[in-house]
Amino acid sequence: MTISWLQAAILGIFASLSSMPGMGGSSIGNYTLGRPLVGGLVCGLILGDVSLGIICGVAMQLVYIALVTPGGTVSADVRAVSYIGIPLAMVAIKSQGISDAQQAADFAKSMGVLVGTLGTVLFYGTATMNLVWQHMGWKAVEQGEYKKLYAVDWYLPWVSHFLFSFLPTLILCRYGADAVTALKDALPMDGLPMKTLFTVGSLLPCVGIAILLKQIVEKVTDFVPFFVGFTLAASLGLNLVSSAVVSLIFALLFYEVQMAKNAKASAVAVGDFDDDDEEDI
């Protein structure tokens, strides 16, 4: 598999739309197109192998399933993971002749983590250059030149995204694909480096799931609904979609029970209200 200039350019456009602060907006860009789960489908369509793209995207999403960006603090940039890591992982998997889905997923996870660190540099580069445009905007406001704000808000940010989103994605995907393919001879499948990548890749989802557990588990009983999906998959052989539907049913039940409790508590609070002082007045 190779990546042409046109394919690399399209990947660069999606990287620009997905970057945060994104040209596609936070909801459509960063939180939708930028997620590896969606990026895998997009990369699969662009590179002509949808199934492999989805396998890589799902694998990388597990690692970053609990990633948040509080106050602009970014530990890894999933935009780079989606549109640099996934394409390069697809090329590497094809060049190595990996046909097993689990091995392909483990290899993709390792590639995603390597690129995610690089993406952090690109993220802060974009944010830093946007500060220059912001300074120009404040200066225009002070001078009463409000029409210049259109350029500051709508046009100049494209320069930032071109330099730190589009251009790196274009170059890394086009030339990185050749480099990854050349590594096939230097890193044989039965060698220590490749075995290390597979081993590390198989362990990385534990990190993402552990971070997610740290955020949602407050007491021991919170583990019960968390393990429902694993139990359904192991005992009934359900796939992820079926397990998600069953979990949605339980989530709806929990929601209805909680709403009933809140309504009862509100009714009790109203009934206990003492208005004697108001009557005395």
Automatic annotation (TrEMBL):
Q: What is its EC number?
A: 2.7.1.69
Query: Which Pfam families does the record match to this protein?
Result: EII-Sor
Q: Where are the transmembrane segments?
A: 45-68, 111-133, 154-177, 197-214, 226-255
Tell me which GO cellular component terms the UniProt record holds. plasma membrane
Q: Does the keyword Transferase apply?
A: yes
Instruction: Provide this UniProt record's keywords sorted from A to Z.
Output: Cell membrane, Membrane, Phosphotransferase system, Sugar transport, Transferase, Transmembrane, Transmembrane helix, Transport
GO MF assignments: transferase activity
* Single biological process term from Gene Ontology: phosphoenolpyruvate-dependent sugar phosphotransferase system
Q: Where in the cell is it found?
A: Cell membrane
Bilayer topology reads: Multi-pass membrane protein
Membrane is among the record's keywords:
yes
For this entry, the protein name equals PTS system, fructose-and mannose-inducible IIC component
